[in-house]
Design brief:
This is Kunitz-type protease inhibitor 2. One of its GO terms (cellular component) is plasma membrane. This protein is mainly α and 260 residues long. Helix content is 52%, strand content 11%. The strands form 2 sheets. A two-stranded antiparallel ribbon has the order 1-2. A two-stranded antiparallel ribbon has the order 3-4. Strand 1 (59-65) and strand 2 (70-76) form a beta hairpin.
């Protein structure tokens, strides 16, 4: 009886251990599934690149730029978008504010796949995001304001070089240029200090250098021509002096002969 009781206790302990092991495996599996779902949700809602879509509507939407860690405005065409598309900046920040690039291990691959799976669309031009662009005064400050063919209505500011001030205009949402700022302060900070001594682009520098070279060449040729003309005149004067000197000598000889 004692042996059978010990066997029953051993079986009961083994059964409990099996149940505990199954519960542990189940919890680990559930945690993995939840983590995978969370990672997939983060990727879809926060790490995916913005998608304008093929349609031609002009809907102002917000998307999370994980590189900058901020929510940015873009124009949504109305169809074939993705989950990184929010109606307001507050909704975007609430969903993705703490997300960084390290949230997944293959961000670059996922972004390339997202970019290749949708048709190319015209990029928005906005001078507020110019950290990676080399400053070009002609593009950022001297260019005329461009509304663009799209029909959105975004208030923007551009720098007027003639008035030396920033003026507001309405941006349609696509095919603009770099002289387009979200605030008057950003416009003035970008262009007002540069107005007195704007940096010329490479093409303009080449043209200026070529013009200076041509001017120096013209001055050199002009000076050479003046020098050659003066030398020719001097030689001519010397030749005339030589002729007159010979004539005077002959006349003097004739006079001396008559005297004799």
């Amino acid at each position: 009886m004692r042996v059978s009781a010990e066997r029953a206790m051993a079986q009961l302990c083994g059964l409990r251990r099996g149940r505990a092991l199954l519960a542990l495996l189940g919890s680990l599996l559930l945690s993995g599934v939840l983590a995978a779902d969370r990672e997939r949700s983060i990727h879809d809602f926060c790490l995916a690149s913005k998608v304008v879509g093929r349609c031609r509507a002009s809907m102002p939407r917000w998307w999370y730029n994980v590189t900058d860690g901020s929510c940015q405005l873009f124009v949504y065409g109305g169809c074939d978008g993705n989950s990184n598309n929010y109606m307001s900046k507050e909704e975007c920040l609430k969903k993705c504010a703490a997300v960084t690039e390290n949230a997944t291990g293959d961000l670059a691959t996922s972004r390339n796949a997202a970019d290749s799976s949708v048709p190319s669309a015209p990029r928005r031009q906005d001078s507020d995001d110019h950290s990676s662009d080399m400053f070009n005064y002609e593009e950022y400050c001297a260019a005329k304001a461009v509304t663009g063919p799209c029909r959105a209505s975004f208030p923007r500011w551009y720098f007027d070089v003639e008035r030396n001030s920033c003026n507001n205009f309405i941006y349609g949402g696509c095919r603009g240029n770099k002289n387009s700022y979200r605030s008057e302060e950003a416009c003035m900070l970008r262009c007002f200090r540069q107005q007195e001594n704007p940096s010329l682009p490479l093409g303009s520098k080449v043209v200026v250098l070529a013009g200076l070279f041509v001017m120096v060449l013209i001055l050199f040729l002009g000076a050479s021509m003046v020098y050659l003309i003066r030398v020719a005149r001097r030689n001519q004067e010397r030749a005339l002096r030589t002729v007159w000197s010979s004539g005077d000598d002959k006349e003097q000889l004739v006079k001396n002969t008559y005297v004799l």
